[in-house]
Design brief:
Elements: H1 43-63, H2 69-94, H3 101-130
Helix pairs in contact: 2-3
């Protein structure tokens, strides 16, 4: 008769890579999905890492800590794109061509968002120049 292997599997022993002070041991941090014994193709880990990266970029945008000139340039372009329709609507209103009130609400909201982005752009630019 064939005897089955009655040896029970022991739990995985903790190694140096399983320490909690290692940032790659936390879900969402870069390196977590490709940690030891993983292929990196897990869709949940991939999406979690992408969300963490996007959140980090958004956080640096709004806290004034941008160090990459490309991101700073894109921030400035975004601010100009958001404020340009409001400026053009004001010029048209001065010429006598008034827009409906619904259009003004939309233009004011995008214009305010654009001004906030431009102020953030200037803050980041000053921080980048002084460092």
């Amino acid at each position: 008769m064939n005897k089955k292997n009655s040896r029970s599997k022991s739990p995985k022993k903790a190694n140096d890579q399983d320490k909690q002070d290692d940032p790659s041991a936390l879900p969402g941090w870069p390196g977590y999905r490709t940690r030891g014994g993983r292929s990196g193709y897990d869709p949940i880990d991939t999406r979690t890492e992408a969300a963490h990266t996007a959140g980090t970029i958004i956080q640096t945008l709004f806290t004034g800590e941008i160090r990459n000139p490309t991101y700073l340039f894109l921030l400035g372009v975004l601010g100009l794109v958001l404020t340009t329709p409001l400026a053009l609507a004001i010029v048209e209103a001065m010429n006598g061509n008034l827009l409906p009130w619904k259009a003004w609400i939309f233009l004011l909201l995008t214009g305010i968002a654009g001004v906030v982005v431009l102020v953030n752009f200037i803050k980041n630019l000053i921080r980048m120049i002084t460092q």
